[in-house]
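INTERNAL TRANSFER SHEET
From: sequence group
To: structure group
Subject: Alpha/beta fold hydrolase

Please process the attached sequence and return the structure record in the designated field. Keep the field labels unchanged so the import script can parse them.
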Amino acid sequence: MALTLVPGFMLDRDLWTDVAPALQRFGPLSHADPARATTIAEMARDTLDAAPARFALIGFSMGGYVAREMARIAPQRVSRLVLIATSSRSDSELQERRRAVALGANPAVFRGVSRRSIAQSLAPEHEGDSTLISRIHDMSLRLGGETFRRQAMFRREGDLDQLGSIRCPTLVVAGDRDRLRSVEESVEMAQAIPGARLEILPTGHMIPLEAPDLLARLLVDFLMEAA
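Return from structure group:
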């Protein structure tokens, strides 16, 4: 088995650092490139071009939209699907505001995603964790202003009516303290995907960073069951 990992908005492969050791037993890990694409569909195609012939696919937040698009384009290549802290709904007010900010921003003076925004993505008990906030902020700095502008312009199209076409084993993971994506959004995804399993963890939006051990155990159990 091989695994392909797709990060969320202005996050890079460090998102997966704490869960990667548990996943390596299942085969090589490949990572989507978050810095090139201009649309969800383009990122899906680029990631498929670089992925193994057949693989398990894990998408986080924005990466969940990319992962589902990949599963639609090449269903025969995706053996298993994991959707973490994501949604099947169209753009929220947050994404619309982010798009408006990006249009007026100068990429040359980008200083990373604001620490205030990052804190809001964490569970209340983690929003004062300066080490965790800095780690997330550093990912956005590495990706830079041009990537911020491109990703902010991504349009997330609602695809609830298309989820019934997903036929591979699917795990949906939500955080019960997620202030960006509600548990209800995960419930509706899991109910729309045939046979999907739903797991809710006691954490905020940044599940791979806030609860890596819990997530790793879930992923290992799911990948072993589906094997």
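Handover comment: The longest helix spans residues 130-152. The chain is about 45% helix and 15% strand.
Transfer complete.
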